[in-house]
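#lab-general

N.A. 3:47 PM
ok so I finally got the sequence cleaned up, no stray characters, all 265 residues accounted for. can someone with queue access submit it? mine expired

B.Y. 3:52 PM
send it over

N.A. 3:53 PM
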Amino acid sequence: MKIGRNEKCFCGSNKKYKKCCLYKTPRLNSSIETSKNIDNKYENLFKLSQDLRIMIEEIMDKSFKVKDDKEVLTAFFLGKAYKTHGAILLLCKNGYAQDAEMLARTIFDMHITLLYILQDKTSERLTRYMSYDWFERKQSFDYIKSKPKLLAEAKAKYKTEIDFDKSLLEIETKGKEAHKTYKGASKYIHTTARTMNTYMKREPYGHTVIVGQNSEGVDQALVLGFDCLLGIVASYIDIVDIEYVERLKVISDSFLNELHKFNTK
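B.Y. 4:20 PM
back already:
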């Protein structure tokens, strides 16, 4: 149900809605109705997402003997992507696909990063990834170095000044290397100008800012989140060598069939 600004208010005051309860109560665009419409329209995508999540839960409940650090990283990415994907589903079901798409982008980033690391037969790329922490530490230390009082307090926490200077030198060296590696990282975040495309709509009389719950972009967020989570779990199944390949293929084929339906509508 949607009440126009100039219609009588639902509270029975006989006043226009805009002069009565418009700013006193949540706008009645009916979040329940919106959620039902989204559930009905994307029922199959939500079901496929749940099928994938059930399989991941079964995998994560099992115990495996870890052979190397790449397996540890892959397990972490799978767990993180699984939880983030759960948030995407909740946002999409309630008509907040714009924020869901941002979260889907983080799973995309994880998937690309994981593939890049796993393609390396050595541990060089994994080491560079883990060294990102040094880049962040260097930023903190650069700031501390510019503040004499903070520098003195930091040195006081070390047993000797030599320990502090040695640590600082290590951070300086590794931080510069990490900066070169990660300078071109993704900039698609909540505050970039590009996100205006999902919140603004051009009208004949001007622009409308879309702030209510709606189904706009739900399909994109669901597809991107599902596809990248599927890729991460496939990498985990491959690296740990467990018997879920056929089951994953069934889910993957069903997903492709559903995409084909959307593309032919």
